[in-house]
Design a protein that fits this description.
Layout lengths: L2 H27 L4 E4 L3 E4 L6 H13 L1
Antiparallel strand pairs: 1-2
Length: about 60
């Protein structure tokens, strides 16, 4: 193989790994309790609770 082919393969692998990392990061940050994606990822989880956001929502309701 020539050097250009190795560079192209390396670039392709880097792009695929970055896309996969982005999908995983978005799944971690998701507030959904049940996630299904393309039939290959199925996740039933308890989403994280953000106390600051809950306090902001309560303050907005109380101020209305």
């Amino acid at each position: 193989m020539e050097v250009e082919q190795w560079i192209a393969i390396g670039g392709f692998v880097t792009i695929c790994a970055s896309a996969l990392a982005l999908v995983i990061k978005q799944l971690e940050a998701s507030r959904c309790s049940k996630i299904k994606m393309c039939g290959c990822i199925d996740c039933d989880r308890v989403p994280p609770v953000d106390n600051d956001e809950n306090n902001d929502n309560n303050n907005n309701i109380n101020n209305s």
